[in-house]
Specification:
Helix content is about 25%, strand content about 25%. The protein is of the alpha+beta class and about 725 residues long. The strands form 4 sheets. The chain has a 10-stranded mixed β-sheet. Strands 17-16-19-20-21-32-31-30-28-29 form a 10-stranded mixed β-sheet, with helices on both faces. This is Villin-1 isoform X5.
Length: about 725
Amino acid sequence: MAHFKDDLDPAFRGAGASPGLEIWCVENLRLVLVPKSSHGKFFSGSAYLVLHTFFLRSGSAWHEIHYWIGRDAKKVDSILASDKALELDLALGSQAVQYREVQGEETQKFLSYFKPCIIPVEGVFSSGQADLETSTYQVSLFTCKGDRVAHIKEVPFTRSSLNHNDVFILDTAFKIFLFSGCNSSSQERAKALEVVQYIKETKHSGKCDIATIEDGKFVADPDAGEFWSLFGGYAPIPKDLPCNSLQLPECPATKLFWITTQGKMCENAPGMLVKEMLSSDKCYMLDCEAEIFVWMGRSTSMTERKASISATEDFVRAQGKSTEIKLTFLTEGSETASFKSYFGDWPEKAEPKLYEEGRGKVAAIFKQQGYDVKELPDDNEEANLFMDICGERKVWRVDSGNLNVVPVVEPMKFYSGDCYIVQYTYLSGGREENLFYAWLGQKSLMDDRVQAISCMNDLVNSVKGDPAMAQIVEGREPLQFFFILKILVIFKGGKSTGYKTFIAENDNADETYHDSKTALFRVEGTSSYNMQAIQVDEVASSLNSSYCFILKTETSTYTWIGNLSSVRDHDLLDRMLDLINPTWQAVLVREGSEPDSFWTTLGGKAEYTREKKIKEFIEDPNLYVLASLEGDLKVKEIFNYSQDDLTTEDVLILDCHSDIYVWVGRHSSVNSKHQALTLGLKFLEKKKSLRQHQLEPPLYVVTEGSEPPFFTCFFQWDPSKANVL
């Protein structure tokens, strides 16, 4: 919620206190709140301010600010809207991302707020005047582009406006015509039909006819004849000329400018951009050709921020840049992933201390308003796994293309140099479902990894239904995997023929665990149904104050308790010691009271992590639609997504950051889960190249109509829609 100050615009009182949209329009050089009944109706002669407030998965509130400039808006109104966006951001704690929106060139994010579309109205907004009905209905011709978010743009009502690539809507007094170019896609036509229905309800009160016209349909068809008569008679549409527009490079040239308090642009020396170039007491402009960012340090004044935005807009006009250029304004600490990707050293995660402080302040504000805000999960709180964990398990170790059955006992024993396949059968919605994992050890060979994926794919194809499958890498296992296996010990080394051969051929020391060897285990978990002991290097730097460890030598065994570990951790330590080897008689050692023999076994004292273990920042998921063309992966984000965006012709990626899901539509061009997994890996490589992913998260493949509950939980899922299949 906006903190109210004496110099804050009264229109912002209580702004951002509840989730949803709040819209203001500039009228007589002041902001006027637009009633909810008029949300989505924009006048081309006005300037607007739009605030979108929502809760993140972490429980904290997030704000996004857009200022929309109508085609015929006065410059003074546009400047006021820009200034008020800054004031609103300041009132909300300077954590909102701000976007400039220009009529006809709105961002996908902005359009996603107003489904199915926005159609600007001629004229100027007036808060005290009802809509006037004209005696004659204004005939309008619109292009409708986009398969998920409709981008509507009015074009001249002439035959020359039509083409073979787009979908057009001709709105007349008594009938709405939908003209589909022969090269338009089925998704674009379906989205355009939604827009037609919207126009019928909003402009015709539901009382008008609808006619669909196919490109190339002859005049003999009554609707087609009526359509062409409005253009003065039928005439063939010329073939579209080849597009000669300049294609932007994959990695556009970027230039960083420091903006002085007088609004002068000072370009930084060319070279790789690093975060240290940005000073908290300055404002900067990052020109990325297709988009421009303005970064404002947290110590800059409101006057400096307004000057930097004004200078950037002057720069865009002076350079002759198109209105299609996206302008995004960021305050230090609210940087988007896209902005950070242009810097070579930007940390992937938020600084924990700043993250916790920011969350606490926002949560307190919202709680005062009576809203239920989740706190960070307590360490003792079990996560919701969204699935039954009492099913049946089958486990195989991959060995030279063969599958060796691994007995399902407690504890399960994996080796870091091997690959394993896990089949889990459970009940969901009253029917039996299967979930397959390929677990790839950190030291496993590439040949074994490839064989593991291939064998998993064969197993998936051998069972009934359409099970989900996942590739996971040691160290990045999802929580549900540990709950499925319940008790797991991961040893160094390997048992497979390929691993043994590789060790012998390269004269490497065989690290494979044996009772006679010294070994150090880190104990993790949350309960007796979720426990792991992971063998780590036998050196002091492997220790961590947040965990408990087991150190086993030929003659003795130690259990080491970190100062930041919990009572629950101590219980898990005792239970795991008995499971690994009940004959071991351990000496209890608390951090800071270690005997010399303990350090001698680890090769001497050394520095290790002593800070409290911080839970990872919970990022909200993003949904992308994929298209693989000649090996080149194209990615397009879908904003404010819903279940309806999972269209049967497409392949989509749900990027939950800690997990990635590849969703395959039944009528997509992807024919196998193996192919879908490859697409997911390409997506991950693309994100890594943009420095938006640095690790290897679990990668799932799910199929339309067989979505598991741990996937559907990210949507407001309606099972009846899925059951249509």
